[in-house]
Amino acid sequence: MAGRQRADRNRDGTTPPEGPSNVFSPSAEFPPLNDAELAALREIGRAWGAALRDHPPDETELPLDPNLDQHDHPPTPSRFGRLARVEMFRTGRREELTATGAENVSGGRLGRATGRLRRLLLGPPLASAAVLQERMRKLVALPVLSSDLLSSVAYGPEAMLAVLVLAGSGALGLSLPIAAALVVLMIAVGTSYRQTVYAYPHGAGSYLVASDSLGPRFGLTAAAGLILDYVLTVSVSVAAGISAITSALPGLAPYTVPLGLLVIAGLLAGNLRGVRSAGKLFAAPTYLFIVAILLLFAVGLARAAGRGFEPVPPPPVGAVEGLGLLVVLRAFASGAASMTGIEAVADAVPAFRPVEWRQARTTLTWMVGILVVLFAGLTVLIDFNGLVPRADETLLSQLARQTFPSGPWYALVQAATTLVLLLAANTAFNDFPRLLFFMARDDYAPRRFLHMGDRLAFSNGIVALAVTAALIFVAFGGYTQSLIPLYAVGVFLAFTLSQSGMVMHWRRHRVRHWRRRAAVNAVGAALCAIVLVTAAVTKFVDGAWVVVVAVPLLVLLCLHIRSHYDAMRQALTLATAPDGTPPPEPDQHDEPAGEPDRAGEPDRAGEPAGGGDLDVGLTPAQVRHLVVVPVARLNLAALRALAYATSLGQPAFAVHLSPEPEEADRFRRQWEIWGSHLRLETIISPYRAVIAPLAQYVGALHAARPDVTLTVVVPEIVVRHLWHQLLHTRTELRLRRALRDLPGVVVTSVPVHVPE
Amino acid sequence: MAGRQRADRNRDGTTPPEGPSNVFSPSAEFPPLNDAELAALREIGRAWGAALRDHPPDETELPLDPNLDQHDHPPTPSRFGRLARVEMFRTGRREELTATGAENVSGGRLGRATGRLRRLLLGPPLASAAVLQERMRKLVALPVLSSDLLSSVAYGPEAMLAVLVLAGSGALGLSLPIAAALVVLMIAVGTSYRQTVYAYPHGAGSYLVASDSLGPRFGLTAAAGLILDYVLTVSVSVAAGISAITSALPGLAPYTVPLGLLVIAGLLAGNLRGVRSAGKLFAAPTYLFIVAILLLFAVGLARAAGRGFEPVPPPPVGAVEGLGLLVVLRAFASGAASMTGIEAVADAVPAFRPVEWRQARTTLTWMVGILVVLFAGLTVLIDFNGLVPRADETLLSQLARQTFPSGPWYALVQAATTLVLLLAANTAFNDFPRLLFFMARDDYAPRRFLHMGDRLAFSNGIVALAVTAALIFVAFGGYTQSLIPLYAVGVFLAFTLSQSGMVMHWRRHRVRHWRRRAAVNAVGAALCAIVLVTAAVTKFVDGAWVVVVAVPLLVLLCLHIRSHYDAMRQALTLATAPDGTPPPEPDQHDEPAGEPDRAGEPDRAGEPAGGGDLDVGLTPAQVRHLVVVPVARLNLAALRALAYATSLGQPAFAVHLSPEPEEADRFRRQWEIWGSHLRLETIISPYRAVIAPLAQYVGALHAARPDVTLTVVVPEIVVRHLWHQLLHTRTELRLRRALRDLPGVVVTSVPVHVPE
Basic and acidic residues: which segments have biased composition (chains A, B) (predicted)? Predict the structure, then answer.
């Protein structure tokens, strides 16, 4: 399968995955080890074998069976009662358990209530095995994926006419040739995308295609454009949907912003439920919209026929600026907003039922066909009826009101328009998390976007989109026309890069008819590039500059994220060399001479005492322990920590920090009363600081012997109510923060529970 | 010493402290153990001795000397470079180190810059040994402690006249008899407090006296009144100070609020520097104020003599309400605001140089004397000059303008008034943290108020006061007269309780002349009670209701805090019975039968394997270990954690959480390549949750064998830049949170550093 091979190349060639890489799998969070890493692992395992030769860890040593096999009695709730529902059962295999409960356990009563509310809103959790069942049939996919594209006709023609009318009502007649050009563009881009779906059967948005064919930076540029596009799709569609409502019910106009936020919240909840449920919810309105607009055409044509196809002249409107090429180009670029959403199918191929690419391609063809009919029909009908854009009522609303002067039909058209626009926003909720998933898998976005929620939806991406779109919606006051200039630039940037990428793709893969295919994509790319440049230049001051600034910033951010993950992978990899050479064996180095304590220490593992590099510590023999127990007061918490530390059987001592020598003396007397079972070290902190001297002392110990792993054992007071934490100094937490920068210093907190 | 014994009783009799309890010592954060606890400690120590009989921890086992003695080479900065300044040196004694640096180490570059700025603003840290040097001489104490009291004359007479003028200008003549009554009250209360200072030589504010003599609830009521008083002192004094400025320079009136906030910030910084520096800063202005007002008297009298002591009739003002008893009482209660601050000396006795009580008493006498002169003189002079309160200019400003129609003398009076008012706020900064210290020592306030900052100031209390006062200042728009009604109620509540407490005190302690002394305090208490009731009733709707509501709420909060600390002390004490019986020895209980793993486990300490109560685990023999290592991926971080866990030499196994069985199989193959050195348990999480199943699994392990201490070893990815944490899932942190409610589950984080 050609698609499979190509998809693999996406992943920068370093780690060929076992399965197809363009599908969504929960295992994406756990990338497998590559050969070099496996070789290193084998080598390290041998070193462990040598280290543990004399004292191999014995399974029978475990004080309880980790399989929980022999415990028939159900585990009882803990004293704090928060982990009450502990139900785990064995599957057939010996070393495998399956978790039945997916609830979040933390948070006590409030957390459980939230969990219940969550289940009520989102439905029961879905197992990973259900991924395949969550695919869409064409008839479901069409409304889910096309609402964005089709709903664009609700504001696209209006955006075009709103520019033309600036040159006076005489210029409105130009809408027909511009619309014809746009129809050509739609068909060209649609044909281009049909090829993309075929070439990338495992799902291929602009990001994947551009990354694959043009390189990662172009891919990221396309991704940045798409990210802006998706966010704006939500904002624009919700804004247009609300204005369809306020056109019908002008009394609601003051509530534009809260209404919009309510809608975004609803979309958020719907999408967190997962793909298929969302499809079901959203299928009817799209079909309703198509039917309503077609009905509008039919009645409109009948009425036009009634008056002998005599066009109504538009009301005279004075020209604000002269009719020049610039106005025509701006009108063209504005009208191109009708095409936003055409890429949805290409992105979402894996969400289709098998055979995915075939179903997706058919769906795409249908979508473009319907788009052309709706767009062309509306433009002609608006021109024919001599309608002019107005601030308080949308063009579509005017048209519907003229066509159906009274009765429920006008209400039907408006309701269908509103619904489909709100669902258009939903398309972005489908695509945005998918895009982020691919980017995260390539380490260009935070890896948390790889995580599938318990409803098999990418919850993190969905929430991120809802929050960003809501912010933009509020910032622009929910006004559609001020958002449009930002919109087209991002979309056509992604289109252009995606189509150019396809040209490169065909040139490289020279399959049958590759020249013809490349030509089709080249035409698409050229047309998209023209729209892109037109939109960016003619609308620069109107808001397009935001996109021109944001895209490079987003690309830089992605590259920075990637470089951080690269550094982390470098720091965590087992294989230091690409040929699989294991990390060098540690050797004795820079130990302070004349260390009388060293000689007396027994070698626990029968190995020569490995000093070891700081960065190694990979085998047990390399770890030399010293346990430090800071003790403030000899109470139960301190004795617990001391008992824990001592019982580990490793060298240990205690540290007491005192603000005054007198207090230190008093403490030492208590220590003697206890029996001085451990060495006690006292630090006088004359300036009464607590954390800094302790951290500096541990730092000094570490500096004196960097090869020793220092384990700092601190009791942690656990209180029942969160606000009670204010009453405690939380030494454990602060010490942990102060020490976390020191390599080789391990902090262990022994919890001590205060019941009230 | 009688005061010493009495002071000890304050501490509820449970832990008699070694030193005098009414002084401020940094050791207050480390209360010593009582006899019962010491006995329990000795008993527990014996159990340890038995447990460690065969394997006593050997000091020579330590891989390095905790004394850092044999390491002459200075410790080198760590790889992360944040703990660079590690300088510690030994004092003469063997087991004692002294920390030289008190800087906070955390926070990297920003933290170090903050530290430098802090030193610049606050000065170098002061050692605990410097506490005694920070005492005040009388001549320094007088201005520091009296500015509140003396500055009250800047708004007290005005508050009185502002009420009288409501009954028309004819009623203003009543100011003289009311003032006379207030002078009697001042002398009576002053005499009362002289006795308090004598009876409580270690410092005795209303809180201590009322707690000691009337019981903790009365003490807390007094404390609540004082807390409100201190906060309002800052707000009122700053407001009055700013209005003294705006009287002179009306152009500044619009900037009242920002100016006030600036002043509060200045006071905050000044007080964080510590007691003596604050005294030095603030001595001159108070003396200047006294001199300026006396000069005003002299010139005013001379002018009056010039016109033959003929009083000027006030301008006619229409009566808003009839002249009745209510108006007179309200005027009296308002005028009593001139007495706020009289308790400052009694609170601050320990800040005086030895002999403290004698110096304090002399200072108090001087203060009250000066107050009477200033208050009486101003009232007479205002009446004599026929002045009437106005909204845009203070009475004192009017008086000064009339007395010094031109030249620098008017400016001098206004400047001195402003300064002394701002310093009055400073009195609260001295007293508020002291009050909270006493309350915290009795467990009625968060214990962090016990902590002395590195300048020997109670930084936490100072910051708390500044923030609260600033909030109230902003809430009331910096307008003095609207704050006055809240003011008097809290103050006189504390006065009344304190004086009543003194009556009880003398009745109980029948020292020489106790009847006379009790009579003096009884008169003081009665007078204060009259003012309290008057103020609360007549000004209830004007704002006194806030205090009437807030005082009981504060008392309840304090009692709640106390009960939390009591519960904590109960949970942490070694002595379960008051007679010093040690906690019962643990015995074998409720262990699941047929546990084949148990038999094979070697007894590490030669003791019979102690199952042990959950709440015990106090000796090493009672701790039975099981180490659990959650592993997501076999990278360096995981191998570090595995090596650390294995090297502890305790029974250990690993857990892998997988979203799908296929991924689990893949992981097990890798585990086998590594060599399967540890037992591996796999949990399938079909709903892709990570933390919840792990926590539930650990909870199930714990429930299966509650006597086993589970140590969960997790690698923690440490990044250099804070925002990079967003790119990581922070499993360690979330797992720690989910597990902290489980007793007997210890979480150990092994840091792995990512350099970029």
Answer: 1-12, 586-606
